[in-house]
């Protein structure tokens, strides 16, 4: 049986078996009057399998849209949560697949920066929206905790369980605090009866590029609306809560627009930064080459550029001795240096050198221009690399420091492939476009149709078990809305490359950022429009702690040893425990 047939059969059984029904309890105990029982029991506290006493007509569940199944029993609601959750998982999968197809056709930019982040957060936004729309204000106030549980649970799960799992599956050997792509020789030592050792935890891990740090910083900044909306409660003020919700909503929407604009222009910014880093690498390479082949000292005794030596170097490069360096002679110089560390476009490097040196704009570098240009480069390297005296050489060590710094800067910025915006030709782009649109429409329709029934099932399960709906939605709903994203991130991280690791963690930080701006904007709009009470201090505190801790952790480092996954994993049970203690011990809620 195919997966599609199984899905239809599963849905049919679900619809057939979950419609509400009511019956009388017939007891086998004889009547004390000797009369025949009419089927109505007078026995109380019966041991029902489903843990819920029979409900009256007034307490019976309400069918979503008037026909979708519902139940008031524990097992029935568990079944409904699983089914509706699976349908939301399908919606998230279709949205993700359609987004990838659309990205394949149109490339990044507007698609990758604007539509993809919003589509990824659409299932969460749908669930949050319907949690506060249905019923009266009292009903909405009760069900909106489902939306807050999803918002907090999704953020915490992405930054703890998924983040830590990506570190484990993507780990490589660390050398000089940088992960080496495709290597994993420091595994578990079973022979020594050590499942974990300090060497294993510290000498293997994951490295990312500098853009991933920027994504983590943006994620940490995106918690500002949470701070604003929580400010009146922190000051024990009741008069300004509604105004604080409005201000936080405006700030959140502005941050959403700003983030989308940044995502649209980020590929262009990344290419410009990468091109500049390559140019600095060319400068450092040429300076090292000139230092190595200098006929005398490249610097004078007082540390200034030695113009006479630079002129002699010019003569050695000027092969035809015509007093000017042509593009072909500069190209020969760059080829001779062999920039093996970077994927260098030699013609582009030549054009940039000429642009730096050729002040007369005659497409030749004259001797005076060469001396002036090299002098400027040396002074720039002294400012960047520092002036460390090199023993027994009569010159300065700053050139080597400058070269190592530019090499590391280029590595942190990533590869050209990662920032390239050119889309490769695909076969039958029209059909792929139609398929992408259909997938996006199908995912959106499924998410819109089954978000409300899922929220109702969670609320009914909460009533049947007396478990707060926040904890149910915190644990269960993110598994439905973020499973496809989590599986994709873990599979991508398992390729054990810096580029894939950078993309994986950037997507995780981006997903949390969209939770903090888009999903929070939806939530705040519900609270403001429907006049609901903002009473989520413990939940907000958990989001702030996890986002700030993980954001600060990832903002200032690009290498994460294996031991860092334990920090992420610990935060998940800590978050659940903190909410429970604050709400049910200290009475925050």
TrEMBL record:
Keywords: Antiport, Calcium, Calcium transport, Cell membrane, Ion transport, Membrane, Metal-binding, Repeat, Signal, Sodium, Sodium transport, Stress response, Transmembrane, Transmembrane helix, Transport
Example GO BP: sodium ion transport
Signal sequence interval, chain numbering: 1-23
TM ranges: 74-97, 109-130, 150-170, 211-231, 243-265, 432-451, 471-493, 505-528, 540-560, 567-586
Domain EF-hand: 305-340, 345-380
PROSITE patterns from the UniProt entry: EF_HAND_1, EF_HAND_2
Predominant place of localization: membrane
Superkingdom of source: Eukaryota
Topology versus the membrane: Multi-pass membrane protein
SMART domains: EFh
GO cellular component, one term: plasma membrane
Intracellular or extracellular location(s): Cell membrane
Pfam families per UniProt: EF-hand_7 (PF13499), Na_Ca_ex (PF01699)
InterPro entries named among the record's database cross-references: CaH_exchang, EF-hand-dom_pair, EF_Hand_1_Ca_BS, EF_hand_dom, NaCa_Exmemb
Gene Ontology molecular-function annotations: calcium ion binding; calcium:proton antiporter activity
Recorded family membership: Belongs to the Ca(2+):cation antiporter (CaCA) (TC 2.A.19) family.
Identification of the protein by name: Vacuolar calcium ion transporter
């Amino acid at each position: 049986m195919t997966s599609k047939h199984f899905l239809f059969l599963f849905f049919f059984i679900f619809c057939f078996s979950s419609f509400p029904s009511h019956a009388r309890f017939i007891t086998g105990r004889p009547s004390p009057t000797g009369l025949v029982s009419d089927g109505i029991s007078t026995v109380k506290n019966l041991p029902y399998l489903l843990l819920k006493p029979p409900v009256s007509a007034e307490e019976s569940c309400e069918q979503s849209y008037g026909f979708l199944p519902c139940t008031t029993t524990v097992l029935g609601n568990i079944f409904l949560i699983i089914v509706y959750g699976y349908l939301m998982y399908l919606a998230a999968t279709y949205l993700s697949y359609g987004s990838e197809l659309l990205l394949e056709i149109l490339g990044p930019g507007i698609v990758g920066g604007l539509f993809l982040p919003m589509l990824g957060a659409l299932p969460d936004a749908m669930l949050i929206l319907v949690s506060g729309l249905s019923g009266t204000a009292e009903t909405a106030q009760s069900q909106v905790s489902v939306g807050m549980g999803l918002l907090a649970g999704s953020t915490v799960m992405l930054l703890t369980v998924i983040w830590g799992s990506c570190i484990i599956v993507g780990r490589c050997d660390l050398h000089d605090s940088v992960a080496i792509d495709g290597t994993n020789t420091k595994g578990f030592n079973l022979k020594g009866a050590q499942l974990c050792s300090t060497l294993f935890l510290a000498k293997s891990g994951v490295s990312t590029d500098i853009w991933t740090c920027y994504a983590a910083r943006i994620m940490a900044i995106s918690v500002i609306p949470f701070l604003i909306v929580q400010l009146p409660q922190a000051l024990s003020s009741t008069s300004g809560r509604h105004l604080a919700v409005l201000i936080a909503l405006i700030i959140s929407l502005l941050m959403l627009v700003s983030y989308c604009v940044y995502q649209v222009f980020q590929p262009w910014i990344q290419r410009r930064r990468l091109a500049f880093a390559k140019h600095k690498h060319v400068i450092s390479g040429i300076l090292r080459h000139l230092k190595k082949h200098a006929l005398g000292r490249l610097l004078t005794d007082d540390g200034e550029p030695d113009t006479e030596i630079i002129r002699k170097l010019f003569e050695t490069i000027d092969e035809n001795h015509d007093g000017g360096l042509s593009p072909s002679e500069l190209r020969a110089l760059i080829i001779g240096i062999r920039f093996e560390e970077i994927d260098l476009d030699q013609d582009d490097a030549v054009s940039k050198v000429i642009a730096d040196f050729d002040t007369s704009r005659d497409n030749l570098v004259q001797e005076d221009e060469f001396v002036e240009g090299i002098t400027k480069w040396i002074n720039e390297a002294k400012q960047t690399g520092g002036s460390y005296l090199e023993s027994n050489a009569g010159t300065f060590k700053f050139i080597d420091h400058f070269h190592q710094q530019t090499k590391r800067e280029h590595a942190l910025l990533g590869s050209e492939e990662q920032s390239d915006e050119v889309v490769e030709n695909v076969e039958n782009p029209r059909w792929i476009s139609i398929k992408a649109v259909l997938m996006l429409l199908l995912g959106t329709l499924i998410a819109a149709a089954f978000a409300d029934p899922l929220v109702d099932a969670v609320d009914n399960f909460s009533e049947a078990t007396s478990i707060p709906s926040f904890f149910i939605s915190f644990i269960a709903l993110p598994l439905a809305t973020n499973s496809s994203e989590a599986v994709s991130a873990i599979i991508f991280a398992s390729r054990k490359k810096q580029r894939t690791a950078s993309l994986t963690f950037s997507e995780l930080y981006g997903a949390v950022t969209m939770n903090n701006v888009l999903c929070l904007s939806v939530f705040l709009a519900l609270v403001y429009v429907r006049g609901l009470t903002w009473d989520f201090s413990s939940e907000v505190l958990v989001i702030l702690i996890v986002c700030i801790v993980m954001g600060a952790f990832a903002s200032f480092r690009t290498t994460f040893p294996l031991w860092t996954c334990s920090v992420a994993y610990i935060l998940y049970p800590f978050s659940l425990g903190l909410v429970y203690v604050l709400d049910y011990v200290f009475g925050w809620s």
